[in-house]
Specification:
By secondary structure, this protein is mostly helical. It folds into two domains: 62 residues, Winged helix-like DNA-binding domain superfamily/Winged helix DNA-binding domain (Arc Repressor Mutant, subunit A, Orthogonal Bundle), CATH 1.10.10; 150 residues, Up-down Bundle (Four Helix Bundle (Hemerythrin (Met), subunit A)), CATH 1.20.120. The chain contains eleven helices and three strands; from the N terminus they run αβααββαααααααα. Strands 1-3-2 form a three-stranded antiparallel β-sheet. Helix 1 crosses helix 3 and helix 9 runs antiparallel to helix 10.
Length: 231
């Protein structure tokens, strides 16, 4: 059971929103789970008015489904929606790789590869982690950010904004479902090796393979967790 640690001052609506959103993304509040204003107001020590504001924001993001007279439920994972979002993310990252190959000079590329290899060394230290809640997520994010920042394109990711929260929830599920951290490390290394080999097409393909996470597990995931997914 989740127990919220009370602060000396009442939490603001924004603080409560961020904490509940984090619980949803981390699957601490499971897809399809029934929650209530009274329950959350008690957990966070705030009024129902605050919770009502928070619920409205979460509903707008697509993480809550509110049914009058029936209750409020954590939204199910929509794999078709996730697939579309991953297509957008892949397009951005493939463009980043294209610009890395066409706009960075030799010294800049060497520096980039060095930073990526240092990041891979840190990833290897996380190989035994079984889900996406340890050190690995931060290092994983940094790996992609190193490439995106190398060509000044992080705003492209920012443009995807709140939509990426849905991808983050899927990633938390998908990594834990198949204990995929060792596989992700291998995929990251394949991307770096393609960059070092000066093979643009291969680097883009390795990135696409890395980000396409639905096909290989979707049937098994839905079969094992049928209440989590919109079908």
């Amino acid at each position: 059971m989740y127990i919220h640690k009370r602060e000396s001052q009442p939490a603001t609506a924004d603080q409560v929103f961020k904490q509940i959103l984090r619980r949803i993304i981390k699957l601490k509040l499971e897809p399809g789970q029934l929650i209530s204003e009274n329950q959350m107001a008690k957990e966070y020590g705030v009024s129902r008015t605050v919770i009502r504001t928070v619920f409205a924001r979460l509903q707008q993001l697509g993480f809550l489904e509110i049914y009058p007279q029936r209750g409020t439920y954590i939204s199910l994972i929509d794999l078709h929606h996730i697939e579309d979002l991953l297509v957008l993310r892949t397009a951005v990252e493939k463009e980043v790789i294209y610009e890395m190959f066409t706009s960075l000079g030799p010294m800049e590329k060497n520096t980039l590869v060095q930073r990526l290899e240092e990041n891979l060394e840190e990833q290897e230290k996380c190989r035994a982690e079984i889900d996406y809640s340890g050190r690995f997520p931060r290092i994983d994010s940094a790996f992609h950010k190193i490439m995106i920042d190398s060509v000044g394109r992080y705003q492209l990711v920012d443009m995807l904004g709140d939509l990426m929260y849905h991808v983050a929830r899927w990633r938390n599920f998908d990594v834990a479902f198949d204990k995929r951290i060792p596989e992700l490390i291998v995929q990251h290394r394949d991307i770096v090796e393609a960059i070092k080999a000066e093979d643009l097409s291969l680097a883009q393909q390795k990135m696409a393979d890395h980000l396409e996470t639905i096909t290989s597990i979707s049937d098994r995931a839905v079969a094992q967790y049928p209440t989590y997914f919109r079908v």
